[in-house]
Design a protein that fits this description.
One of its GO terms (biological process) is rescue of stalled ribosome. InterPro entries: RqcP, S4_RNA-bd, S4_RNA-bd_sf. It comes from Paucilactobacillus oligofermentans DSM 15707 = LMG 22743. It is a single chain. The protein has 89 residues and is an alpha+beta fold. It has a single domain, classed as Structural Genomics Hypothetical 15.5 Kd Protein In mrcA-pckA Intergenic Region, Chain A, CATH 3.10.290. It has 3 helices and 5 strands; from the N terminus they run ααββββαβ. It has a 5-stranded antiparallel β-sheet. A hairpin with a 2-residue loop joins β3 and β4. α1 crosses α2. The longest helix has 9 residues.
């Protein structure tokens, strides 16, 4: 499955166009390597996603083409979540 579609179907990112923009900016890594929106993901891949000052590491548990909200949470497991502090205060 394409990275941008996985992010949307799993509801990590709400819109596929936003997922495409973020991944094409180099803010997503698959197993430590820079990923584009067209990169393929598979079960057991680790995604590192940078949202502004938040970085989230998730592991893909299963891939489903279409999901309901409760099924989407079963598609991945959050391994780490960290926040960078804003030093401009």
């Amino acid at each position: 499955m394409r990275l941008d579609k996985f992010l949307k179907v799993s509801r990590i990112i709400k819109r596929r166009t936003v997922a495409k923009e973020i991944s094409d900016q180099g803010r997503i890594l698959i197993n430590g390597n820079a990923a584009k929106s067209s990169s393929n993901v598979k079960v057991a891949d680790e995604l590192t996603i940078k949202f502004g000052n938040k970085t989230e590491v998730v592991k893909i548990m299963k891939i489903i083409e279409t999901t309901k909200k409760d099924e989407a949470e079963q598609m991945y497991e959050i391994l780490d979540e960290s926040y960078e502090e804003d030093f401009r205060k």
